[in-house]
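Feature request, filed as a ticket because there's no other form

It would be nice if the structure record came with a short human-readable summary line next to the tokens. Right now we just get the raw output. Example of a typical job, pasted below so the devs can see what we mean:
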Amino acid sequence: MQQEYFSALVQLLAGFGFAGIILVLSVIFGRRAKVRKAQDIPYECGNVPEGDGAPGFFSIKYYLVAVLFLVFDLEVILLYPWAVNFKGLVQENGSALAAMAIFIGVLMAVFFYAVGKGVIVWHKNPIPPER
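Raw output as currently delivered:
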């Protein structure tokens, strides 16, 4: 049994060692890039770019909602086939149900944390009615 762990440890060390060697060699032998303003601006199909070149900024809440969508979308992708395929297993064995309850509990903790941090609330102050 220790042989299995040893081979996994050797593979892990080889992977980290290779990554470290590549990084060190790139620092030693790599050339430093020269900062040239003309090459750093975005290409605008022959037109002179206007402004700083950035198309605009997105709110960080956009990305937070996207990450939350991925978390809960993966939950549904995992939960639906589990419920369909393991109906008999849950009826015979309570530990399978407990494992899924723990999984759902962790996801609910993520959801309540996000609600507590105000990720899902788009406007903290409602728009005042017109007078």
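Something like this underneath would help us a lot:
The chain has a mean pLDDT of 79.
The radius of gyration is 26 Å.
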